[in-house]
Write a structure and sequence with these properties.
Helix content: 25-40%
Strand order of the largest sheet: 1-2-4-3-5-6-7-8
Largest sheet: 8 strands, mixed
Structural class: alpha/beta
Mean pLDDT: 95
Strand content: 15-25%
Radius of gyration: 16 Å
CATH class: Alpha Beta
Order of helices and strands: EEEHEHHEHEHHEHEH
Distance between the termini: 37 Å
Shape: globular
CATH superfamily: Alpha/Beta hydrolase fold, catalytic domain
Number of helices: 8
CATH topology: Rossmann fold
Oligomer: single chain
Low-confidence stretches: none
Number of domains: 1
Number of strands: 8
CATH architecture: 3-Layer(aba) Sandwich
Protein backbone atom coordinates (compact mmCIF):
# COMPACT_ATOMS: atom_id res chain seq x y z
CA UNK A 1 0.00 0.00 0.00
CA UNK A 2 1.33 3.43 -0.93
CA UNK A 3 1.93 5.94 1.86
CA UNK A 4 0.12 8.53 -0.24
CA UNK A 5 -2.99 6.41 -0.87
CA UNK A 6 -4.82 8.23 1.93
CA UNK A 7 -3.84 11.63 0.51
CA UNK A 8 -5.77 13.43 -2.23
CA UNK A 9 -3.65 14.15 -5.29
CA UNK A 10 -4.34 17.35 -7.21
CA UNK A 11 -2.67 19.79 -9.57
CA UNK A 12 -2.18 23.47 -8.77
CA UNK A 13 -1.81 25.91 -11.64
CA UNK A 14 -0.44 29.35 -10.80
CA UNK A 15 -1.35 32.56 -12.54
CA UNK A 16 1.63 32.23 -14.88
CA UNK A 17 0.45 28.81 -16.06
CA UNK A 18 2.93 26.69 -14.08
CA UNK A 19 1.33 23.42 -12.93
CA UNK A 20 2.68 21.09 -10.26
CA UNK A 21 1.18 18.16 -8.34
CA UNK A 22 0.17 18.37 -4.69
CA UNK A 23 -1.03 15.90 -2.05
CA UNK A 24 -3.58 16.94 0.58
CA UNK A 25 -4.88 15.53 3.85
CA UNK A 26 -6.67 16.68 7.01
CA UNK A 27 -9.04 19.40 8.10
CA UNK A 28 -8.55 22.76 9.75
CA UNK A 29 -6.28 25.69 8.86
CA UNK A 30 -3.96 25.14 5.92
CA UNK A 31 -0.26 24.25 6.22
CA UNK A 32 2.04 23.83 3.22
CA UNK A 33 4.96 21.49 3.97
CA UNK A 34 7.74 21.77 1.36
CA UNK A 35 9.99 18.73 1.12
CA UNK A 36 13.77 18.91 0.97
CA UNK A 37 16.19 16.76 -1.04
CA UNK A 38 15.67 14.11 -2.30
CA UNK A 39 11.89 14.66 -2.42
CA UNK A 40 8.67 13.41 -0.85
CA UNK A 41 10.34 10.72 1.26
CA UNK A 42 8.46 8.52 3.70
CA UNK A 43 9.85 10.72 6.51
CA UNK A 44 8.37 13.87 4.98
CA UNK A 45 5.03 12.13 4.48
CA UNK A 46 5.07 10.88 8.08
CA UNK A 47 5.74 14.42 9.28
CA UNK A 48 2.83 15.66 7.17
CA UNK A 49 0.63 13.02 8.82
CA UNK A 50 1.61 14.37 12.25
CA UNK A 51 0.66 17.90 11.25
CA UNK A 52 -2.66 16.70 9.82
CA UNK A 53 -3.38 14.70 12.98
CA UNK A 54 -2.82 17.89 14.99
CA UNK A 55 -5.82 19.47 13.27
CA UNK A 56 -4.55 21.06 10.05
CA UNK A 57 -5.18 20.73 6.34
CA UNK A 58 -1.75 19.73 5.05
CA UNK A 59 -0.66 20.21 1.44
CA UNK A 60 2.56 18.56 0.24
CA UNK A 61 3.77 20.06 -3.05
CA UNK A 62 5.78 17.66 -5.20
CA UNK A 63 8.70 19.70 -6.55
CA UNK A 64 11.42 17.19 -7.51
CA UNK A 65 12.43 13.57 -7.10
CA UNK A 66 9.93 10.71 -6.96
CA UNK A 67 7.09 10.39 -4.41
CA UNK A 68 7.86 7.99 -1.55
CA UNK A 69 11.52 7.78 -2.49
CA UNK A 70 14.01 6.78 0.21
CA UNK A 71 16.86 8.92 1.50
CA UNK A 72 20.10 7.47 0.12
CA UNK A 73 23.08 8.47 -2.00
CA UNK A 74 21.40 7.50 -5.26
CA UNK A 75 18.17 9.43 -4.72
CA UNK A 76 20.06 12.45 -3.36
CA UNK A 77 22.28 12.51 -6.44
CA UNK A 78 19.33 12.19 -8.81
CA UNK A 79 17.37 14.99 -7.13
CA UNK A 80 20.46 17.18 -6.92
CA UNK A 81 21.03 16.88 -10.65
CA UNK A 82 17.36 17.70 -11.26
CA UNK A 83 17.36 20.90 -9.20
CA UNK A 84 20.75 22.00 -10.51
CA UNK A 85 19.53 21.84 -14.10
CA UNK A 86 16.24 23.60 -13.38
CA UNK A 87 15.88 27.37 -13.69
CA UNK A 88 13.13 27.27 -11.04
CA UNK A 89 15.71 26.96 -8.26
CA UNK A 90 18.68 29.11 -7.30
CA UNK A 91 21.76 27.38 -5.95
CA UNK A 92 24.67 29.82 -5.78
CA UNK A 93 23.33 33.26 -6.70
CA UNK A 94 22.90 35.78 -3.89
CA UNK A 95 20.31 38.52 -3.58
CA UNK A 96 17.70 36.74 -5.69
CA UNK A 97 14.42 34.94 -5.00
CA UNK A 98 13.99 31.53 -6.64
CA UNK A 99 11.38 31.64 -9.43
CA UNK A 100 9.53 28.71 -7.83
CA UNK A 101 8.41 31.11 -5.07
CA UNK A 102 5.82 32.53 -7.48
CA UNK A 103 4.07 29.16 -7.74
CA UNK A 104 4.28 28.54 -3.99
CA UNK A 105 2.77 31.94 -3.20
CA UNK A 106 -0.07 31.17 -5.58
CA UNK A 107 -0.65 27.84 -3.82
CA UNK A 108 -0.77 29.64 -0.45
CA UNK A 109 -3.26 32.22 -1.74
CA UNK A 110 -5.52 29.53 -3.16
CA UNK A 111 -5.47 27.47 0.04
CA UNK A 112 -6.13 30.51 2.21
CA UNK A 113 -8.94 31.64 -0.08
CA UNK A 114 -10.61 28.27 0.32
CA UNK A 115 -10.10 27.77 4.06
CA UNK A 116 -10.18 31.36 5.34
CA UNK A 117 -8.85 32.29 8.75
CA UNK A 118 -5.80 34.45 9.49
CA UNK A 119 -3.70 32.68 6.85
CA UNK A 120 -1.81 29.47 6.19
CA UNK A 121 1.41 27.99 7.50
CA UNK A 122 4.44 27.51 5.25
CA UNK A 123 7.31 25.24 6.23
CA UNK A 124 10.46 24.73 4.16
CA UNK A 125 13.27 22.29 4.92
CA UNK A 126 16.94 22.31 3.95
CA UNK A 127 17.20 23.05 0.23
CA UNK A 128 13.69 24.55 0.38
CA UNK A 129 14.05 26.10 3.85
CA UNK A 130 14.16 29.68 2.57
CA UNK A 131 10.95 29.28 0.58
CA UNK A 132 8.91 29.97 3.72
CA UNK A 133 10.51 33.45 3.81
CA UNK A 134 9.80 33.98 0.12
CA UNK A 135 6.18 32.92 0.64
CA UNK A 136 5.55 35.23 3.59
CA UNK A 137 5.87 38.20 1.25
CA UNK A 138 2.26 37.28 0.44
CA UNK A 139 -0.18 38.10 3.23
CA UNK A 140 -1.84 34.69 2.85
CA UNK A 141 1.05 33.22 4.87
CA UNK A 142 0.63 33.82 8.60
CA UNK A 143 3.00 31.20 10.06
CA UNK A 144 6.34 30.82 8.22
CA UNK A 145 8.76 28.14 9.46
CA UNK A 146 12.35 28.00 8.22
CA UNK A 147 13.96 24.63 8.96
CA UNK A 148 17.74 24.43 8.33
CA UNK A 149 17.75 26.80 5.29
CA UNK A 150 20.60 25.71 3.01
CA UNK A 151 20.40 27.79 -0.19
CA UNK A 152 22.36 29.42 -1.64
CA UNK A 153 24.93 26.76 -0.82
CA UNK A 154 27.07 28.15 1.99
CA UNK A 155 30.29 28.39 -0.01
CA UNK A 156 31.98 31.51 1.30
CA UNK A 157 30.83 34.11 3.80
CA UNK A 158 28.48 36.02 1.49
CA UNK A 159 26.51 32.98 0.36
CA UNK A 160 26.40 31.58 3.89
CA UNK A 161 24.65 34.73 5.13
CA UNK A 162 22.25 35.13 2.18
CA UNK A 163 18.51 34.49 2.66
CA UNK A 164 17.77 33.47 -0.96
CA UNK A 165 15.65 36.60 -1.34
CA UNK A 166 15.80 39.63 -3.58
CA UNK A 167 16.33 42.98 -1.82
CA UNK A 168 12.66 43.83 -2.43
CA UNK A 169 11.55 40.55 -0.85
CA UNK A 170 13.89 41.07 2.11
CA UNK A 171 12.20 44.42 2.72
CA UNK A 172 8.73 42.93 2.25
CA UNK A 173 9.47 40.10 4.71
CA UNK A 174 10.77 42.57 7.29
CA UNK A 175 7.64 44.69 6.83
CA UNK A 176 5.40 41.66 7.39
CA UNK A 177 7.27 40.87 10.59
CA UNK A 178 7.03 44.48 11.76
CA UNK A 179 3.27 44.17 11.23
CA UNK A 180 3.11 41.14 13.53
CA UNK A 181 4.04 38.05 11.49
CA UNK A 182 6.71 36.18 13.44
CA UNK A 183 9.09 33.64 11.88
CA UNK A 184 10.08 30.33 13.49
CA UNK A 185 13.47 28.86 12.60
CA UNK A 186 15.09 25.52 13.46
CA UNK A 187 18.61 24.22 12.94
CA UNK A 188 21.54 22.37 14.53
CA UNK A 189 24.18 24.79 15.78
CA UNK A 190 27.04 23.07 13.93
CA UNK A 191 25.17 22.48 10.67
CA UNK A 192 27.52 24.09 8.15
CA UNK A 193 24.85 23.97 5.43
CA UNK A 194 22.90 26.75 7.15
CA UNK A 195 25.87 29.13 7.17
CA UNK A 196 25.20 32.25 9.24
CA UNK A 197 21.61 32.76 8.05
CA UNK A 198 20.21 32.67 11.57
CA UNK A 199 22.46 35.62 12.41
CA UNK A 200 21.13 37.42 9.33
CA UNK A 201 17.55 36.71 10.39
CA UNK A 202 18.15 37.91 13.95
CA UNK A 203 19.68 41.13 12.67
CA UNK A 204 16.85 41.68 10.20
CA UNK A 205 13.86 40.59 12.31
CA UNK A 206 15.00 41.05 15.92
CA UNK A 207 13.06 39.27 18.63
CA UNK A 208 10.33 38.30 16.15
CA UNK A 209 12.66 35.70 14.70
CA UNK A 210 12.10 32.74 17.00
CA UNK A 211 15.28 30.72 16.52
CA UNK A 212 15.40 27.19 17.93
CA UNK A 213 18.88 25.63 17.84
CA UNK A 214 19.95 22.12 18.78
CA UNK A 215 23.41 20.97 19.75
CA UNK A 216 25.46 18.94 17.30
CA UNK A 217 26.11 18.57 13.59
CA UNK A 218 22.77 17.15 12.45
CA UNK A 219 20.77 18.64 9.61
CA UNK A 220 17.15 17.54 9.17
CA UNK A 221 15.62 18.77 12.42
CA UNK A 222 12.11 17.48 11.70
CA UNK A 223 12.67 14.27 9.74
CA UNK A 224 15.92 12.31 9.35
CA UNK A 225 17.54 13.83 12.46
CA UNK A 226 14.22 14.38 14.16
CA UNK A 227 14.12 16.49 17.32
CA UNK A 228 10.87 16.09 19.25
CA UNK A 229 11.27 19.56 20.73
CA UNK A 230 11.37 20.89 17.18
CA UNK A 231 8.20 19.03 16.21
CA UNK A 232 6.45 20.35 19.32
CA UNK A 233 7.55 23.93 18.68
CA UNK A 234 6.33 23.81 15.08
CA UNK A 235 2.91 22.45 16.04
CA UNK A 236 2.59 25.02 18.86
CA UNK A 237 3.53 27.79 16.42
CA UNK A 238 0.88 26.69 13.91
CA UNK A 239 -1.68 26.35 16.70
CA UNK A 240 -1.01 29.86 17.98
CA UNK A 241 -0.79 31.64 14.63
CA UNK A 242 -3.49 29.79 12.68
CA UNK A 243 -6.01 28.82 15.36
CA UNK A 244 -5.34 31.17 18.27
Amino acid sequence: MSLLDSWTRDLHESEDGTTRPTYRKGTGPGVIVIHELPGLTSSVIDFGEEVADAGFTVVLPHLFGHPETQMNAGTLTGAFVQVCTSSEFTKLATGVTAPLATWLRSLARTLHGELGGPGVGALGMGFTGGFALAMMVDESVAAPVVAQPSVPFAIGRKRGADLNLSPADVDASAARVAAGCQVLGLRFRKDRATGTRFDTLRELLGDDFLGVEFEGKGHSTLIEHRQQEGIDRVLEFFEEKLKG
